[in-house]
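Board notes (copied after class):
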Amino acid sequence: MGDVGAATAGDAISRILLFLDIELREQLDAVRRDETDAVHQARIRVRRIRSVLAVYRRLFDRDRTEDLRQGLRELGVALGAARDPEVRAKSTEDLLQARTAPAVIDAVEAMAAELLSDLGEARSDLLRLFETEEHADLLNTFTRFAAAPPLHQRAGGPARRTFRKALRREVGRVDEKARAAADLRLAALHELRKKARRLRYAADAVSSEPIGILGARTRRLAKAAETAQEVLGDHRDGILLAQHLRHTLAGHTLGRSAATGVGIFAARCEKQAYRELGRLDVALDGIRELYA
């Protein structure tokens, strides 16, 4: 691109989109080959693209991006359906300890097996989706979009200033969601997590390959947003796992020892989940200070 410091926002965002298009196709191919962690990595690529399209949406013709963003959201949902049972099954098995009672081990392993059964079905659904015309059309639409983005005249502005302004607006949105989540409601914390994740990927896109047009400050912003996302993710996973254990417990006839053990695991998950939130304020303060 030459001097990245002199690049327009349109030049920079075009290179970012081309890079993301290649990454997405590579990861979707890895999913087809059933490579380790491929579904998770493909889901991350979809989220990165959606984050870029959302945070820097003023650079594009809005009428040309809405359907694309919706299609990518649906692809992300399909990837999530093939990923979440795997994560839940592993988290369930990780509860087991060396001195866990045999009856509890049997009950927990049975729960994990049910989740893995769901995983096989979800993966089959995902591979069937990959063979549809709608999926091919979505990928081709994004490739064309990346190759020749429908840019608004605002995209002619300096890249550094344009990206910093967009990130500052996004920090404001994170702060708004943080205030709304002060009562620690699970739904509000989830909304905060999604905004932190979007900020992370948007900051990372303009401070790392392929252009790295913004520097260390923006990389620190991405890291702070990642920390907030991880804290909130660990909290949510713990709460949802506790709910899953209790729901499964209610739907199965278990012996007293197994039922008591599973109930104790659920309580531990919940306790650890709220302990995770102790790191959240530091991460949020870091975000605010970096892009006040």
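Comment from the instructor: Residues 216-251 form the longest helix (36 residues). The chain has a mean pLDDT of 89.
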